[in-house]
Amino acid sequence: MSLLTTIVIGLLIGIVAKFLLPGDDPGGMIVTILLGIAGAWIAGYIGRAAGWYGPGEPIGFVASVGGAIILLVLYRVLFRRKRLH
Fold first, then answer.
1. 84 HSE (CA, 13 A, CB side)
2. For the purposes of burial, counting CB atoms within 10 Å of the CB of 11, is it exposed (0-12), middle (13-18) or buried (19 or more)?
3. Which domain holds residue 51?
4. Which pTM does this prediction carry?
5. Which of 2, 14, 47, 49 is deepest in the core (most CB within 10 A)?
């Protein structure tokens, strides 16, 4: 059940990140989920290691969205589609 919960929360975080950072992304729903999961994991690890918050605190969701936004920006830079004008 933990894996399913992680995927659902990652999806929510990815959706919020894409809502806050709209634009043309080279990925679809799977990439959104993966960026959300990775953002949550990275932000959670850093936040708890630094002592900023503990597991289950609401600020962790905000930090996870921030992590997903950072990953989304990096993804856009690294996998930018070349447009023909």
1. 0
2. middle
3. 2-78
4. 0.76
5. 14
